[in-house]
Specification:
Number of helices of chain A: 17
Largest interface: A-B, 45 and 63 residues
Strand order of the largest sheet of chain A: 1-3-2-4-5
Number of domains of chain B: 3
Order of helices and strands of chain B: HEHEHEEEEHEEEEEHEEHEHHEHHEEHEH
CATH architecture of the largest domain in chain A: 3-Layer(aba) Sandwich
Radius of gyration of chain B: 22 Å
Strand content of chain B: 15-25%
Structural class of chain B: alpha+beta
Number of strands of chain A: 8
CATH topology of the largest domain in chain B: Uridine Diphospho-n-acetylenolpyruvylglucosamine Reductase, domain 3
Strand content of chain A: 5-15%
Shape of chain A: globular
Order of helices and strands of chain A: HHHHHHHEEHEHHEHEHEHHHEHEH
Distance between the termini of chain B: 17 Å
Number of strands of chain B: 18
Helix content of chain A: 40-55%
CATH architecture of the largest domain in chain B: 2-Layer Sandwich
Oligomer: heterodimer
Chain lengths: 382, 507
């Protein structure tokens, strides 16, 4: 993006401040009337308009990159609310496009250490456990093998044998033929590459993914991590359909009944990359309903959902800040009266778990679906 | 006092976290949409020395005392939204800006039907908060949804009279305020005089509630304000009537005022750009303004109350306005204009983003250019509109590619606003006229620049006061009596002149 293009985009923002708040009919408690984790914490230049003015100042040459600017940039979780909201109206400040450009543009030395090594997230973890899936009839897509539908794990999942067993069990129950690149996994792309401004690495990975999907004649990819989903959807040049695993569950629960779960009322955290980025707000709610659970949505939910605070690399670069964002979210979750929060993103799960009150549970949607289909934890070998 | 000493002093008062003097903060608070050429470029960027975020009235008081003692100019930006006209210091690298983000408390007193809000709260926050009670503000200048509710400085200046939302708020809702005077003294007016005072703007406390309006913090800093709420009426309606000439419309408007029917009747001249949406639901003072009325003069008003009252008043007004030569706008057109009302999210149908210079792929708008001034005579206003249009046409004739570009829209809007003794020079003083020119491509900036130059010259010749920040060049020849009073008050409350110099009052 040229400086002039950046300026043109940044000038869309007239600092109307609307994205500061949540636009819905009623906010019964003004404590939950604000949006933007960093803006409502630090105010001023940390609000979306501040970031847009940062872009404007940099494009005009009025500002130069320095540590102060970097601090503001990396306090943003890139949750996308400001962008999403702005698109709902007449004007559209392409905030995410601008923020991504800023993260590309910032000098390497000003990037937080964790993001300087963002490409490390592409490394396949040693001792990855994907072969657990084979116990449930998932096919390993070795070279030359083909599959219509495959499962795309990210690297947080590759080491989590327990979660893989839950997923494998659900896939087995579905009776569908599903493959996975187990022995030679696809590059586990996720949003870290975007947060770290690693365009070249991302492009190379996507080219490899597209080639291998084509070679294996894949038509549909079920993606576990919403961050991976949004990156794949936005960057793949193939005709393959990428769907979230939550969406897969929703479809499955319609065709194959599961037992109703007995739990107190639950609330649901919309992951930004599943909701705002991939526009999937309905599937998780369909799953919750099909599981027989009473959902008490938070006031900021759906496209008005408040980020858990983990996004934008904040969890990796500034865990204390991510926790403080999550505490705000938990405050609202508690106000619903629910004692259980369901989410469909491993980062939301991790960050919110670190900020929850003692009497509150954060549960992964996969775990509940597996339970509903009778998963006991002992299935699938070791 | 040196900048570093100012910053150190402020940090001692509010804490180091809440004083910002980094480049981005200064840029963010020293530029606004009207500092960029292509978005108006009414005035240049003026960056403050620092931005201070007080957490309480006591903080504000301490900062004001510190600034007064050390002669540090103070400016206020409320919640920091919609910063147009008067939001930045009067000179580069001057003064300290109060940012009220930390003061966003909003409480509702159901018994008195009053909302109390701190200056960092936005209209949207307050509006959504009270809506559940089926009450709302009577609107005036709605502002965009994110507009800070009252902003010690820009509050109620109506700086963004653009979009709106279901409820509005504004001057006429305010029933009381708490204000830190330049001396550091705290005064409470109207309904805030005591905790149980009724929500009347003119008592039982001192009837000074409107004092700081339009003074852009020139008289002091508002730290809390009460708004009177009203129950949702049974029925609302609006009426739009067009006239052949602006003069006819003004005369008709006068007739309406005398009749005491309707709420918030407003007259708008030809080519009006819109003030768009005011609430129909909680309509008391506001009126629908007109969107996209390029060629008509219009009087708009609203009615609220019981169905019988609304019907009666509306019919009476139709008859009255027809006697002045007005034509009632057909229902289909009103329906389009009323479309604004459903616009809870603010911007959907409003052209205000364009006026703020969106370089929006959807609209292919290159941006806007604004020029205008404040007049106190109808003749000046008419002359400016007529001669300004001639200048515009002359530039177009000489630049046919500009004339033929996709959106050669020029809008001229004028409004005859209220005069408040304290206004201190807001654009609505007597009559304001503003040329707004949409241009589809930035390559036309040279032509726009030429038009701007010609308009500025014209304004000087006609003796209008300029719009914008740092209006040292203002003629002060409009509403002389009012401004004389404003200056006397200013001298009495702020003899050192450190409150917002160069905004409403000269540097």
């Amino acid at each position: 993006m040229t400086r002039e293009e950046l300026l043109d985009k940044a000038l869309h923002c007239n600092r109307c401040g609307t994205c500061r708040g949540v636009t819905q009919d009623v906010i019964p408690d003004v404590a939950f009337a604000l949006q933007c984790p960093c803006g409502s914490t630090f105010f001023g230049e940390y609000e979306p308009s501040g970031l847009m003015y940062m872009a404007r100042g940099l494009a005009m040459g009025n500002l130069k990159w320095n540590e102060d600017l970097a601090k503001v940039l990396y306090a943003c979780t890139m949750c996308g609310y400001c962008d999403d909201f702005c698109q709902r109206g007449y004007r559209h400040t392409p905030a995410i496009e601008i923020l991504e450009e800023l993260r590309r543009d910032i000098p390497q030395k000003l990037k937080p250490k964790a993001l300087q090594k963002a490409t490390d997230s592409l490394n396949i973890p040693k001792g990855q456990k994907l072969t657990v899936l084979a116990d449930f009839g998932i096919i390993d897509i070795a070279p030359g093998k083909k599959a219509d539908t495959i499962f795309f794990p990210d690297n947080t999942l590759m080491l989590n044998a327990g979660k893989l067993r839950e997923i494998g069990y659900i896939f087995q129950k579905s009776g569908k033929k599903i493959g996975c690149f187990m022995s030679d996994p696809l590059p586990p792309v996720n949003a870290s590459l975007v947060f770290g401004g690693c365009d070249d690495a991302l492009a190379a990975c996507m080219a490899e993914i597209d080639d291998r999907l084509e070679d294996a004649a894949v038509k549909k990819v079920i993606v576990y991590n919403p961050e991976s989903l949004s990156v794949l959807k936005r960057n793949s040049k193939s005709d393959v359909e990428f769907i979230s695993i939550t969406s897969f569950y929703a479809g499955l629960l319609k065709s194959k009944k599961a037992k109703k779960l007995k739990m107190p009322a639950v609330t649901y955290q919309d992951p930004c990359h599943l909701g705002r980025y991939a526009k999937d707000y309905a599937a998780p709610r369909e799953v919750i309903k099909a599981l027989g659970l009473e959902l008490k949505d938070m006031w900021r939910s759906g496209n008005n959902s408040l980020c858990c605070g983990a996004g934008g690399g904040v969890l990796a670069t500034n865990p204390a800040l991510a926790k403080s964002y999550a505490e705000k979210r938990m405050h609202e979750a508690s106000a619903t009266g629910a004692k259980v929060m369901i989410t469909a993103c491993p980062y939301c799960l991790a960050n919110l778990s670190g900020a929850k009150p003692r009497d509150f549970k954060i549960v992964d949607i996969t775990t509940l679906v597996a339970q509903a289909y009778g998963f006991s934890g002992k299935e699938g070998g070791k | 006092m040196k900048a570093q000493e100012v910053i150190k002093g402020l940090k001692r008062i509010v804490g180091a976290d809440w004083v910002r003097s980094d480049e981005l903060s200064r840029f963010h608070n020293g530029a606004d949409v009207l500092t960029h050429f292509g978005q108006g470029a009414l005035y240049p960027e003026n960056h403050p020395v620092a931005v201070v975020m007080p957490g309480s009235t006591k903080d504000v008081q301490a900062v004001v005392k510190f600034a007064g003692k050390n002669n540090v100019p103070l400016y206020c930006v409320g919640g920091g939204t919609v910063l147009l006209v008067g939001s930045i210091p009067g000179k580069p690298d001057l003064g300290v800006i109060f940012d009220f983000h930390r003061m966003q408390k909003v409480t509702l007193d159901n018994e008195r039907l009053v909302v109390r809000a701190q200056p960092g709260a936005s209209g949207l926050q307050v509006s959504q908060f009270v809506r559940e009670q089926n009450i709302g503000f009577r609107p005036y200048f709605g502002g965009s949804p994110g507009t800070s509710t009252f902003v010690a400085y820009q509050v109620f200046t109506g700086q963004n009279k653009m979009a709106g939302y279901l409820d509005g708020m504004g001057i006429n809702c305010a029933s009381g305020m708490e204000m830190v005077l330049p001396s550091g003294e705290i005064i409470r007016t109207g309904s805030m005089m005591n905790p149980k005072a009724p929500g009347w703007p003119h008592g039982p406390g001192p009837a000074l509630t409107y004092l700081p309006f339009f003074s852009n913090a020139g008289y002091g800093v508002v730290t809390e304000m009460e708004f009177r709420c009203f129950s949702t009426p049974q029925e609302c309606a609006s009426l739009w009537v067009t006239f052949k000439t602006l003069r006819e419309a003004c005369e008709a408007m006068n007739g309406i005022i005398k009749s005491e029917y309707a709420c918030g009747a407003t007259v708008m001249g030809p080519g009006c750009w819109t003030h768009a949406l005011y609430s129909g639901q909680h309509w008391q003072e506001g009126a629908h303004f007109v969107k996209g009325t390029q060629d008509i003069n219009v009087v708009g008003m609203s009615f609220r109350g019981t169905k019988r009252k609304v019907d009666y008043e509306r019919n009476a007004c139709i008859e009255l306005l027809q006697n002045y030569g007005g034509t009632v706008m057909p229902a289909w057109m009103v329906a389009i204009l009323d479309g604004h009302e459903a616009n809870a999210a603010g911007w959907q149908q409003c052209n205000s983003p364009k006026i703020c210079g969106t370089f929006n792929g959807k609209s292919d708008s290159g941006g806007i250019f604004v020029s205008g001034g404040v007049f106190d005579q109808m003749k000046q206003l008419e002359d400016y509109m007529r001669l300004g249009m001639q200048e515009y046409q002359d530039v177009c004739r000489k630049n046919p590619e500009f004339l033929n570009h996709p959106h050669p829209i020029i809008r001229l809007y004028a409004s005859c606003g209220q005069t408040y003794v304290s206004m201190g020079g807001h654009a609505n003083a007597a009559g304001e006229v503003i040329f707004v020119l949409d241009f589809a491509n930035r390559k036309f900036l040279p032509m726009v620049g030429e038009i701007k130059g010609r308009f500025d010259k014209l304004m000087k010749e006609l003796g209008s006061a300029p719009l914008g920040t740092g209006r040292d060049g203002r003629t002060w020849n409009e509403c002389k009596d009012h401004f004389a009073v404003a200056k006397i008050i200013k001298k009495a409350v702020d003899p050192k002149g450190f409150m917002a110099p160069g905004v409403s009052f000269p540097l």
